[in-house]
């Protein structure tokens, strides 16, 4: 019996028992007992709500995490449905990545595409970041990227690609923001250097910048944008769904920068593209138009973008800051990302060259429309949620 069912049964039992005994209690202890019974009912009700929220957000995936041990944050591997009769599905493996530079040791999922064991070349890699609160498991509840990737690979719109889902926080209740905290955990170093080194060493993965991209939603979108701008020598492209682009400090992060305003600015993508030389990376920013904060952040980045940064924006009309919007946006984003990255080494296809489809000097804005396709060749015949496009010069 699941923990959710157990807590629900206890909540009902506590309420029934309290109602049954309410008028049967006698003597001086009647009122203290009634108060205690009501407190028990409230505690069990809060437990039901807490378990439900945890099942949705996966803040705690093991009992060890309740005492601050995030080593157990990766749950048992989610089941992947085979994409079509007779088709071979990819597989998900669990690893523990020990950061030689950062000193951080945390688990991660690694997705290997269907052809991984039957081919010989090194494959491109997408590093995927979840929101906060959340964990790698959250990806598979919000918008299972394996299903999207395998469909796109099967249809020829995406080359075989490895995906890695690292843990981003030392504690499930403390947001690392994927940065090197002043005097604290070095998550930028871990995620951008250690993870890449580990995957390149232990899997048949490309190790050059053209072979690596990032993908994140919400806080994970901030991580992807920030790390791409900070490490253009390691990443060619990044996708951000409903991300924000100015570093935050609040009760979930603590003082990551110890009052150093310049360090915080340097970890703010919007500040970087307004004040520093911008690198030649490709970025894809997307959200639902009714996600008020996300849409405002997207517009701010689009207004500041300048060459040689190549920025593409996309929107769906509604869905808010939810998995529904991200699921609708995911196929087009994966197609776009695969075009930006180099394909498997030894692959003769010119479509895997990572040339990019964004304007060389400007912003490619994908307007919310349907029915057309973008880009040449069969790899891009995917109806996107924002398929018709126009290009304009970047401001800033």
Structure write-up:
With 396 residues, the protein is α/β, with parallel strands linked by helices. It has 2 domains: 3-57; 79-392, Rossmann fold, CATH 3.40.50.1820. Helices cover 34% and strands 15% of the residues. It has 10 helices and 10 strands. Strands 1-2-4-3-5-6-7-8-9-10 form a 10-stranded mixed sheet, sandwiched between helices. Helix 1 (3-21) runs antiparallel to helix 2 and helix 4 crosses helix 10 (323-340). The longest helix is centred in the first third of the chain and has 28 residues, at 30-57. It is globular. The protein starts with a helix and ends with a strand. 44% of the residues are buried. Residues 56-87 and 347-396 have low confidence and may be disordered.
Entry keywords:
single chain; Rossmann fold; 10-stranded mixed sheet; 10 helices; 10 strands; disordered C terminus
Per CATH, the architecture of the largest domain is: 3-Layer(aba) Sandwich
Instruction: List the helices and strands in order.
Output: HHEEEHHEHEHEHHEHEHEE
Per the principal axes of the C-alpha atoms, what is the gross shape? globular
Oligomer: single chain
Instruction: Round the mean pLDDT to the nearest integer and report it.
Output: 78
What is the structural class?
Answer: alpha/beta
Q: Could you give the order of strands across the largest sheet?
A: 1-2-4-3-5-6-7-8-9-10
Rounded to an integer, what's the Rg over CA atoms? 23 Å
Task: Enumerate how many helices there are, as a single number.
Answer: 10
Roughly what fraction of the amino acids lie in strands?
5-15%
Main beta sheet strand tally, sense and closure: 10 strands, mixed
Q: Give me the CATH fold name of the largest domain.
A: Rossmann fold
Q: Could you name the ranges where pLDDT drops below 50 across 5 or more consecutive residues?
A: 56-87, 347-396
The N- to C-terminal Cα distance equals 58 Å
Helix content: 25-40%
CATH hierarchy, class of the largest domain:
Alpha Beta
Number of strands: 10
């Amino acid at each position: 019996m699941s923990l959710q069912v157990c807590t629900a049964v206890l909540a009902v039992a506590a309420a029934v028992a309290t109602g049954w005994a309410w008028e049967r209690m006698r003597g001086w202890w009647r009122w203290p007992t009634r108060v205690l019974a009501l407190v028990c009912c409230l505690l069990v009700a809060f437990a039901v709500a807490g378990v439900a929220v945890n099942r949705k957000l996966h803040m705690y995936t093991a009992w060890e995490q309740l005492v601050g041990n995030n080593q157990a944050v990766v749950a048992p591997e989610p089941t992947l449905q085979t994409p079509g009769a007779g088709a071979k599905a990819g597989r998900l493996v669990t690893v523990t990545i020990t950061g030689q530079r950062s000193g951080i040791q945390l688990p991660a999922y690694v997705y290997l595409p269907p052809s991984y064991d039957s081919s010989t070349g090194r494959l491109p890699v997408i590093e995927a970041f979840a929101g906060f609160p959340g964990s790698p498991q959250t990806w598979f509840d919000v918008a299972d990227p394996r299903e999207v990737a395998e469909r796109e690979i099967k249809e020829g719109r995406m080359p075989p690609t490895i995906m890695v889902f690292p843990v981003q926080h030392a504690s499930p209740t403390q947001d690392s923001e994927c940065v090197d905290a002043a005097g604290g955990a070095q998550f930028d170093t871990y995620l951008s250097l250690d993870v890449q080194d580990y995957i390149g060493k232990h899997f048949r993965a490309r190790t050059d910048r053209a072979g690596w991209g990032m993908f994140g939603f919400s806080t994970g979108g901030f991580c992807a944008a920030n790390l791409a701008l900070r490490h253009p020598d390691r990443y060619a492209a990044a996708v951000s769904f409903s991300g924000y682009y100015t570093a935050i400090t609040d009760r979930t992060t603590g003082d990551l920068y110890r009052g150093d305003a310049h360090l915080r600015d340097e970890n703010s993508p919007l500040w970087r593209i307004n004040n520093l030389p911008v690198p030649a990376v490709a970025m894809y920013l997307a959200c639902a138009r009714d996600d008020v904060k996300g849409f405002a952040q997207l517009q701010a980045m689009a207004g500041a973008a300048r060459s040689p940064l190549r920025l593409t924006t996309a929107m769906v009309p509604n869905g808010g800051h939810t998995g529904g919007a991200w699921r609708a946006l995911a196929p087009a984003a994966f197609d776009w990302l695969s075009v930006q990255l180099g394909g498997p080494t030894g692959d003769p296809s010119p479509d895997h060259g990572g040339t990019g489809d964004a304007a060389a000097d400007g912003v490619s804005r994908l307007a919310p429309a349907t029915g057309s396709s973008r880009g040449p060749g069969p790899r891009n015949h995917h109806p996107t949620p924002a398929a018709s496009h126009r290009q304009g010069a970047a401001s800033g």
